[in-house]
Amino acid sequence: MKSRLAILLAVVCAGKLLATDVTADFAAANKLYAEGKFAEATTTYDAILKTGAQSPVLLFNAGNAAFKAGHLGKAIAAYRQAELLTPRDAELRANLAFVRNQVQGATLRESRWQNWAGTLTLNEGAILTAVFFWAMFALLAFRQLRPVLAPKLHSVTRLAVALTLFSGAVLALQATNRFNAAIAVVTGAEAIARSGPFDEAQSVFTARDGAELKVLDRHDNWVQVVNNVGKIGWLNQKQVAVLPGA
């Protein structure tokens, strides 16, 4: 029993130490940013993110530092990850749109439907769908228990059914984008997409820093992507940040 308690205390202390280290590193990165040392700040933010720490503020600051350091792709990747956590943050969305406008060449653009659906987190979409479903279920049950009120509840029941179906469709789109779709963001000055997943393959097209490309397939350290004009090629994973869809 004492041995188990000692192990538990060690784990708790380690967790607190890790949190303290991350907080100190975050403060150091913020200080570097305030001093205009954007490249150093970006490196420090990246080191924090590699520990598994993640928050909207951390990702937002990392995106700002990357943009100031001239890394459009790293900025977009950080902003996109922050957007998954706080999709309605106006400043975040404005910064993401601004950086995207600096990207040269072909890049993927989200549809209005995807952009609208992205204003809710996946958890919020699931909760909203559950609320509409149980409201619909309660109305249908009440109509059975009190048939005399069924005519009066007809309109509101139809509305509850419609909202349940609509929110369910939006949730399905969100889940599909999150778990079955992926986006590759070019994080270097340029990336050459090749006809096959090897360095000697013929060049198909060149994607610039910050380009967002839909991922079609993966093979070893390569990802197959398609750009917004339909060209398909393979990129080395070192050239991109692969993220879940919006």
Folded structure, characterized:
This protein is α+β, with helices and mostly antiparallel strands. The chain has 8 helices and 7 strands, in the order H-H-H-H-H-H-H-H-E-E-E-E-E-E-E. The protein has a 5-stranded antiparallel sheet with strand order 6-5-4-1-7. A hairpin with an 8-residue loop joins strand 2 and strand 3 (203-208). The N and C termini lie far apart (47 Å).
Proportion in helices: 55-70%
Rg from Cα: 23 Å
Spell the H/E element sequence.
HHHHHHHHEEEEEEE
Secondary structure tally, helices: 8
Number of strands: 7
Poorly predicted spans: 1-18
Category from helices, strands and their pairing: alpha+beta
Biggest sheet character: 5 strands, antiparallel
Rounded to the nearest angstrom, the distance between the terminal CA atoms is 47 Å
Please give the order of strands in the largest beta sheet: 6-5-4-1-7
The proportion of strand residues reads 15-25%
- Determine the mean pLDDT: 84
Assign an overall shape.
globular
Which terms summarize this structure?
alpha+beta; 5-stranded antiparallel β-sheet
What's the SSE blueprint?
Elements: H1 2-34, H2 38-50, H3 56-68, H4 72-85, H5 90-100, H6 112-117, H7 122-145, H8 150-180, E1 182-186, E2 190-194, E3 203-208, E4 212-219, E5 222-226, E6 232-236, E7 240-244
Short description:
With 246 residues, the chain is an alpha+beta fold. The chain has helices spanning 2-34, 38-50, 56-68, 72-85, 90-100, 112-117, 122-145, 150-180; strands at 182-186, 190-194, 203-208, 212-219, 222-226, 232-236, 240-244.
